[in-house]
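hi support,

uploading two proteins for the ticket. first:
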Amino acid sequence: MKITRFIILSLMILVAACNPGKKLVQEEAGSMPPIFPDYTDVTVPYNIAPLNFRINETCDKLFVTISAGSKKTEMAFRGARAIFPIKAWERIMKENRNDTIGITVSVLSGNHLKKYKPFSIFVSGIPVDGYMVYRKIMPGFQNWNQMGIYQRSLSSFSVETLIDSRVLPGTCMNCHSFASNDPSTMVFHLRESLPGTILLQNGKVRKLNTKTEKMFGAAAFPYWHPSKKYIAFSVNRVNQIFHAAGNFRAAAVDMRSDVFVYDIEKNIMLTSPALSAAGKFESFPCFSPDGLKLFYCSADSVQLPQKFSSIRYSLCSVSFDPATGKLGETADTVISCHAINKSISIPRISPDGRFLMFCMADYGCFPSYNPEADLYLLDFKTGKYEPLSGFNSDNVDSYHSWSSEGRWVVFTSRRGDGLYAKPYIGFIDENGKDCKPFLLPQKDPAFYDLYLFSYNVPELVKGPVHLDPYEVEKLVRKTPGVQVESGSSH
């Protein structure tokens, strides 16, 4: 792949004009370009926003040649940043669906032109869901007064606020969840000064008070049943532990937890002995796509907080009857923590029901503090599970969400600096093989250098969420909310 004679001629004229008497000196670098984000050899959906990047060296101009078959698109940028026009990028992506494009990067410094080895990007013909909903939060441990829930268009760079601390100061917003990637069916929690669970269904917003007389706390960590008639929750009492020495800053410890299922039509909370057993911790529920099983994580209780690093969670399931709301009383252990001496959290099943993705760490069920935390994939067809080696890094990889077509996944990772969680999108084929993920593109490649917040709980949805933050504010300030009652799953 060569830079065209037209560009070379243009560069020679430019060099001659700026540096009379000097000739253009050309160099083959023999290496990949040092770009950020690292978009070399990634797989991307054709409807993704431009993969803008910067090159990590000083230069006067940056030249990018995008090659696909016999067709080439050549662009020149002032300075060290490549910011692609959206319309041109959309054309290139659509024209090359299910094909590979080659990208050659060259830099001009004075009269010195250096060309790097080309790299490839595979453009998948399978689109990713159009929006990502996430929480923005500072990476500290107690400072949560600047946060919010936002949605980002994945085909552009537009960001919209759904709710934030400017509208509800002194209130923590968390645990947003959608039914089968449907932006019209959402639930999230408010805590501290204005507590309540907010339920969005077909444009209507309700406030729920989810703590019943049989629950020791309010609901958390929701997951929708595919029928949209039920929501599974866990009830958790979480403490933080701070380390006085060593490389680990903190740990989140589940002091107590149970799992409940909310029947939306009957306004009752359901559970079973398997989900609220004495001497057990149950957390992170997840319905199967057919709605007939409820998966969750379960641990034997230990002395806390003294033995927090010894608590480990197994992956379990119980049966569920959507017609009656009855939950199974006997748990089935899918992966035992005692067999692997590791801890499992955040089970999420692909829409086709073939795969279950989960996070595995040395201990606990809140992996955002565990640098060894990695993502794994369980294949229900074979019964085997493997680490997602293409996705995982040397730091925390967790909090994953499937796209509605079941091929794309978004997850957060602290790779790079070990502090800020950033969203990565990766492809998984029909056999469970994962590809190198890519960092969510931004309009300015320097965005992540200046962004002092972490992305938390990214969820992929098929379209924009229509939620009026001021309607939510009015609701939580002026209405007591609907009190949820206890029910029986028998």
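and the second one:
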Amino acid sequence: MKVGDTVVRKSYDRDITFKIISIKQEDDETIYVLKGINLRIIADSPEGDLEVVKDDSLGKTDLIFDRKVNDSIKKIILQRDLIVPELKIPRINKAVKIPELKDKNLSFGRPGKILHIDGDSEYLEVCLKVYKQLSLNVVGKTIPEYEQPNVIVQLVKEVKPDIVVITGHDGMAKGINDFTNIQYYRNSKYFAQAVSNLRDYEPNYDDLVIFAGACQSCYEAILDAGANFASSPSRVLIHCLDPVFVCEKIAYTNVKEVVSIPELLENTITGVRGIGGLETRGKYREGFPKSPYV
């Protein structure tokens, strides 16, 4: 096996599909470091537990998530009555069939602008494709988790977003009992510090909406730092696209309305176990009249 191979773990009933990202030696044993194809998870495994699969093969859990992704995209498009051109669907949800909708000739509007900071460039690329499909205005930056607190305020000053996503990889230490101690998490402390730095810059929860966290992140600490939405309430793995679906709901909810958290969670892949948050106003602004020149 080599770096770049797509594999599943036999001891976990081949549930999640991974890509090998590095190989290391531990006590005369070869250990493979793995990254989830769809889930924001980093794991390691001995060679004997791995099975190479085709690039387009997905584990059992991934197939379930793919169906949820398809359903969420179609539901969002139908809810917004968008005219959807021929779209190139990313590999993780390539089976989705977009319905053709008629132009309602609605008055124009502007959804909230998004800044998405991600510790993983491949996950960010997939997210940017789906942002585009959903007609969202987004700027994406790949920043390692440990550097995010140092650069986040300057990036917000430059981009001037309405919504900020701070994500990447995370995970809990093995065998912990105190799930609220942020020191037992791989990157939660960086997410929380980045959120705290942003709240020092903009304390109003409705002026700057923040989503932060990744797989198994310390949900309570990130909310306490000032995030509107965070992961992961039940310390579960979250899907690569969960931040996108959170942002879509906020960006297209009118500024006069408070975002319905149950409705927001319905469109995410991991739902109430993976994402939660606080009452927040939407970022969609209607305009009148529409310019005849655009």
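thanks. also noticed: Residues 60-80 form the longest helix (21 residues).
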